[in-house]
Design brief:
The complex is a heterodimer of chains A (244) and B (190).
Chain A: E1 42-43, H1 48-51, E2 80-88, E3 99-104, E4 129-133, E5 139-145, E6 150-152, E7 158-160, E8 163-168, E9 177-182, H2 201-204, E10 210-211, E11 222-225, E12 228-229
Parallel strand pairs in A: 2-11, 2-12
Antiparallel strand pairs in A: 2-5, 3-4, 3-8, 6-7, 8-9, 10-11
Chain B: H1 18-21, E1 45-53, E2 63-69, E3 88-92, E4 98-104, E5 109-110, E6 116-117, E7 120-127, E8 134-140, E9 164-169, E10 172-174, E11 177-178, E12 188-189
Parallel strand pairs in B: 1-10, 1-11, 8-9
Antiparallel strand pairs in B: 1-4, 2-3, 2-7, 5-6, 7-8, 9-10
The chains are: A mainly beta (244), B mainly beta (190).
C-alpha cells in the first residue's frame, strides 16, 4: 500500500512470524485428516482488506462479562481463578481496546453445548463464556473457574489438558487469533496432539500460563498470567513506501 | 529498546465455541451475527449462502465462518458495532454444513497505486480439525473487474473458480467452501 487511508494504522506484518503456528496438516490430531487443505496456500499480498478489520471496543461488552463466576444465581463449583495478562504486538507494544472472548468447560470438564456427550455434570451456575476489552495498556482480567480436563475420542484414552479458549481481534484482519491457554505443570500437555502440533517448543510454551502469587487474591482466588502476542510490528514510516 | 518476542500460536476453535461466539441458539447475543448490513445500509442488498464440505464430501456441521468486507462504496467501516453497515459477520454452520449472511455487495476497493481491486469479501473458516483459521476470498462471478484483479491473477487459473460466488437469484449468491479434495477451495497465506 502506498498510502493507507486515514484511520488505517500503518503496521508491518512480517510473514516469518507465522512459523510459530502449527501446520494445518497434523495427522496425530485425527480431525485434521479430512479437514486440512492439501494444496499449498497462495501467498496474498496485504491489501486494504487485510490491513483493516472490525473494531469491537468497550461498548461491545457489558460490565461484569469478564467475571464468569457471577453470571447466575449462585456461585459455580470448582477452583476460582483470576486470569490476567496483556495483549502485545511483536515489538512488545500494547494492543489497547481490543476485544477478547473466552469459553471453557466447567470444573468437571463439561461444556454447555448440545454436542458435548462427556458424562460429567453440568453446573447450573456456570456456562463458561466471557468477554472483555483490553485497557489502554493492553491489559485484561477474567475471573473464572479452573476448567477440568475431559476425554475426547482422538485416540485411545485421550484427554484434553485443562484449557481456556481465547479469541482476539487486534487492529486488523491479519491479527485475528483463536487459541487456547493452558495451565502450568499439566501432565496432559505432553500427550496432547493439539498442543504438540506446534512444532517449535519455544512457541508452544507461550500458550502455558504462569501461576503468579502477585495475581493471586488472598482468601479468594489463585492467579494466572497469560500474555498474548499478536502479529504486527509498530508503524515503520522509514520503510520503502512502494513495497507491498 | 523493546524486547522482541514471537507471536502466540494458533489453536483450533474446537467443537464447543457456540455458547460464546455464535450464541443465538442459546438465547443470548453475540458480538456479531450473520447480518453484516441492516436494511438501512446503502447499497445492493444480497444474501450469501454456502456449505462447508470436508475431504470426504461430507458436510462440516461445526464450523464458524467470519466475513469482512467493504461497503457498497468500497469503504471499510472504522467501527463494527451499532451501525447499519458493520462490515463484519459471523455464522456457524448447521447440521448440513450450511451458512448464510445478509449484507450488501461490496464496491471495488482501492489498491496500491490507485488501481481498483474487484469487489470481494475476506472469509475466515474456523472449525474443529483446523489448527489455524483458513483465509479465503469470495469474488462475484458476474463481476467484469475480476479479469484484472491482481489477487485473482496470483491464483492458478484452473483453481480460480473456487473463489467465485455463483449468482443463484437476482439478490443471492452461493459460495461453497471445500476444505480438501476435489475442487478444494483456494486458501491464502495472509
Amino acid at each position: 500500500m502506498s498510502q493507507p487511508p486515514a484511520g488505517v494504522e500503518r503496521r508491518a506484518y512480517p510473514r516469518e512470524s507465522l512459523a510459530a503456528h502449527p501446520p494445518n496438516d497434523a495427522p496425530a490430531y485425527a480431525s485434521t485428516r479430512l479437514r486440512a487443505p492439501r494444496k499449498p496456500l497462495v501467498i496474498l499480498p496485504h491489501t486494504l482488506t487485510e490491513l483493516t478489520g472490525p473494531v469491537y471496543g468497550h461498548e461491545s461488552v457489558a460490565p461484569g462479562e469478564n467475571d464468569l463466576t457471577t453470571r447466575h444465581d449462585g456461585a459455580p463449583l470448582g477452583e476460582r481463578i483470576v486470569v490476567t495478562g496483556r495483549v502485545l504486538d511483536e515489538d512488545g507494544r500494547p494492543v489497547p481496546h481490543t476485544l477478547i472472548e473466552i469459553w471453557q468447560a466447567n470444573s468437571a470438564g463439561r461444556y454447555v453445548h448440545a454436542n458435548d456427550r462427556h458424562d460429567a455434570p453440568l453446573d447450573p451456575n456456570f456456562t463458561g463464556a466471557g468477554r472483555v476489552v483490553t485497557d489502554a495498556s493492553g491489559a485484561y482480567t477474567f475471573t473464572t473457574i479452573k476448567p477440568g480436563a475431559y476425554p475426547w475420542r482422538n485416540h485411545h484414552n485421550a484427554w484434553r489438558p485443562a484449557h481456556i479458549h481465547f479469541s482476539l481481534f487486534g487492529p486488523s484482519f491479519l491479527t485475528r487469533l483463536v487459541t487456547q491457554m493452558y495451565f502450568p505443570g499439566d501432565p496432559l500437555l505432553a500427550l496432547d496432539p493439539i498442543y504438540q502440533a506446534i512444532p517449535d517448543a519455544a512457541a508452544r510454551v507461550r500458550l502455558v500460563s504462569d501461576f503468579e502469587i502477585e495475581t493471586t487474591k488472598p482468601e479468594w482466588a489463585l492467579g494466572y498470567r497469560f500474555d498474548i502476542v499478536l502479529r504486527g510490528r509498530a508503524a515503520t514510516p522509514m520503510e520503502d513506501p512502494h513495497d507491498d | 529498546m523493546m524486547t522482541e518476542r514471537g507471536i502466540t500460536p494458533s489453536q483450533t476453535v474446537g467443537p464447543f465455541f457456540a455458547y460464546c461466539l455464535t450464541p443465538e441458539a442459546y438465547g443470548t447475543r453475540g458480538i456479531a451475527s450473520s447480518e453484516v448490513a441492516t436494511a438501512d445500509a446503502a447499497g445492493t442488498r444480497i444474501r450469501i449462502e454456502g456449505r462447508v464440505i470436508d475431504g470426504a464430501g461430507e458436510a462440516v456441521p461445526d464450523a464458524m465462518i467470519e466475513i469482512w468486507q467493504a461497503d457498497g462504496e468500497g469503504r471499510y467501516p472504522d467501527h463494527a458495532a451499532n451501525a447499519a453497515f458493520r462490515g463484519f459477520g459471523r455464522a456457524e454452520t448447521d447440521a448440513h454444513g450450511r451458512f448464510a449472511f445478509t449484507t450488501v455487495k461490496p464496491g471495488p476497493v482501492p489498491g496500491a497505486d490507485g488501481s481498483a481491486h474487484a469487489p470481494h469479501i475476506a472469509v475466515s473458516v474456523f472449525a474443529r480439525g483446523l489448527l489455524n483459521r483458513l483465509a479465503t476470498r469470495l469474488y462475484f462471478e458476474d463481476e467484469p473487474a475480476n479479469e484484472t484483479d491482481p489477487v485473482l491473477a496470483r491464483v492458478p487459473a484452473e483453481r480460480r473458480a473456487t473463489l467465485l460466488a455463483r449468482r443463484t437469484a437476482p439478490d443471492a449468491y452461493a459460495f461453497d467452501i471445500r476444505l480438501q479434495g476435489e475442487g478444494e477451495t483456494v486458501f491464502f497465506e495472509i
